[in-house]
């Protein structure tokens, strides 16, 4: 099965045009949603929930949780699926870790998720911002487990070391798609490098939980998904997420198909049989979807400040 070129209008007209019922979500709103939004604005922070147009923003913000987007809102890469803007980022805000930690404390979070744009122009990819944010959160909100969804830092082992030295409970790095589609979906990334990030995290900190995920509906086959899952287990990944790709705008890659919930259930069962500690698989699943519940269900111990 080959991914259809987004330039082929004739073929695109044959692709699914309307979202099925199982992808319908409520419009965001409510008192708690408003509180989270005001907090982010007052602290000058970004969230991947907004920048990546996450369909679960209403549910998550309505529960008082959000995924913090570090290092600004401009990415140095141009992935075909992502709504975050591409360009020349602003200068790093070295005070950002403190403000994120203050927000975590105000929200009274028991689990928080930190991610970032790619900052390929920086020697360490901004790894110290992750590390500093982890340490600031530990000062202001001890007892909160911390999950970081990191870029690949262009394979820089020292940058990964800097993050792992801060001892996040969960280290997440997304695979996003199957190897055959990397050139189309993630032209500035590399499948083997992604696997090395995941295995490298375990080598540097064997006590850490590792996590990754993919989107489906971009033209991959079931056999390719299974092979990726087998690769994850071979690299000692603990938690996986599988969700439906949703096209942010007509300029992004087209949706090849909408995957039925029954197929997501099959992937969950595959993961169980392969021995993952947790598999989150469903149409609306994203990297940090139900992340706090995963940490709680796995009884992940809180680590100490370093």
Molecular structure report:
The protein has about 300 residues and is of the alpha/beta class. The protein has one domain: TIM Barrel, CATH 3.20.20. About 35% of the residues lie in helices and about 15% in strands. The protein is built from twelve helices and ten strands. The protein has helices spanning about 10, 30-40, 50, 55-60, 95-105, 125-140, 155-165, 180-185, 190-205, 220-235, 260-275, 290-295; strands at about 45, 65-70, 75, 85, 110-115, 145-150, 170, 210-215, 240-245, 280. It has an eight-stranded mixed sheet, sandwiched between helices. The chain has a two-stranded parallel ribbon with strand order 3-4. Strand 5 (about 110-115), helix 6 and strand 6 (about 145-150) form a beta-alpha-beta unit. The longest helix has 14 residues, at about 125-140. It is globular and about 45 Å long. The N and C termini lie far apart (about 50 Å). Mean pLDDT is about 85; it is low at about 1-15.
Keywords:
single chain, 306 residues, alpha/beta, TIM Barrel, 8-stranded mixed beta sheet, two-stranded parallel ribbon, 10 strands, disordered N terminus
Q: Approximately how much beta-strand content do the residues carry?
A: 5-15%
Assembly state (oligomeric): single chain
In the CATH hierarchy, the architecture is Alpha-Beta Barrel
Sequence stretches where pLDDT stays below 50 over 5 or more residues? 1-13
Number of domains: 1
* CATH level 3 topology: TIM Barrel
SSE order in H/E notation? HHEHHEEEHEHEHEHHEHEHEH
Q: What CATH first level would be assigned?
A: Alpha Beta
> Mean pLDDT, nearest integer?
86
What's the CATH H-level superfamily name? Answer: Aldolase class I
Backbone CA Rg: 18 Å
Shape: globular
- Kindly report how far apart the N and C termini lie: 48 Å
Structural class: alpha/beta
The strand count comes to 10
Largest sheet: 8 strands, mixed
Helix content: 25-40%
């Amino acid at each position: 099965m080959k991914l259809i070129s987004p330039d082929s209008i004739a073929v695109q007209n044959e692709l699914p045009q309307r979202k099925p019922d199982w992808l319908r979500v409520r419009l965001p709103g409510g008192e708690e949603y408003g509180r989270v939004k005001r907090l982010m604005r007052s602290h000058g922070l970004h969230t991947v929930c907004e920048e990546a147009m996450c369909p679960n923003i209403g549910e998550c913000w309505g529960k008082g949780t959000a995924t913090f987007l570090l290092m600004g809102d401009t990415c140095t890469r141009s992935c075909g699926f992502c709504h975050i803007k591409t360009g020349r980022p602003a200068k790093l805000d070295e005070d950002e870790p403190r403000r994120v930690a203050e927000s975590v404390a105000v929200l009274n979070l028991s689990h928080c998720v930190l991610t970032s744009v790619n900052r390929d122009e920086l020697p360490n990819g901004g790894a110290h911002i992750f590390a500093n944010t982890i340490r600031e959160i530990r000062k202001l909100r001890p007892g909160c487990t911390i999950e970081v969804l990191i870029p690949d830092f262009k394979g820089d082992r020292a940058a990964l070391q800097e993050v792992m030295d801060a001892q996040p409970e969960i280290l997440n790095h997304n695979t996003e798609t199957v190897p055959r589609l990397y050139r189309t979906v993630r032209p500035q990334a590399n499948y083997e490098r992604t696997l090395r990030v995941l295995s490298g995290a375990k080598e540097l900190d064997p006590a850490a939980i590792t996590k990754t995920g993919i989107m489906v509906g971009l033209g991959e086959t079931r056999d390719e998904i299974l092979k990726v899952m087998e690769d994850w287990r071979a690299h000692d990944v603990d938690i996986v997420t599988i969700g439906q790709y949703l096209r942010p705008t007509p300029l992004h890659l087209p949706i090849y198909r909408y995957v039925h919930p029954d197929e997501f259930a099959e992937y969950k069962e595959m993961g169980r049989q392969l021995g993952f500690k947790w598999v989150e698989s469903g149409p609306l699943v994203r990297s940090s979807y139900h992340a706090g519940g995963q940490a709680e269900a796995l009884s992940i111990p809180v680590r100490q400040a370093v």
